[in-house]
Amino acid sequence: MKRLLTVILLAIAVLAFGAVPDSEAAKRGGTLKIGMEGNIPHMDGTIALGTPIKFYRETMGAGLLLLNDKLEIVPDLAKSWKVSDDGLTITFKLHEGGTFHDGTPLDAAAVKWNLDLINGRLVPSWLKKAQKKNPKLKFRSSYRLYLYQIKKVDVVDKYTVRIHQAKVGRAQTLPALAGYFTRLILVSPTAYDKAGYKFKKHPIFAGPFKMVEYKPKRHVIMERHKGYFLKNRPHLDRIEVYYMPDANQRLNALRSGQIDVILNVPKGLVKTLKRSKKVKLYSGKAATTFAFPINNQRGPWKDIRVRKALVCYGVNRKLIVKTALRGLTIPWATFSAPGSPDAIDLTSECPFDPAKAKKLLAEAGFGSSKPFKFVMTINNTDPTFVDIAQIMKTTYGSMGVKMDIRVVDRATWVTLFVRKRNTDMTLQDTVPVLDTNSNSHTFYSKTPLDYYMMKDPKLDAMVEEWRSTLDRKKQKAVSHRMQRYMFDKAYYAGLAGSPYIQATRTYVKGWTYLNKLAFDLKDVWLDK
Question: Which one of 118, 219, 404, 458 is most buried, counting C-beta atoms within 10 A?
Answer without folding.
Answer: 118
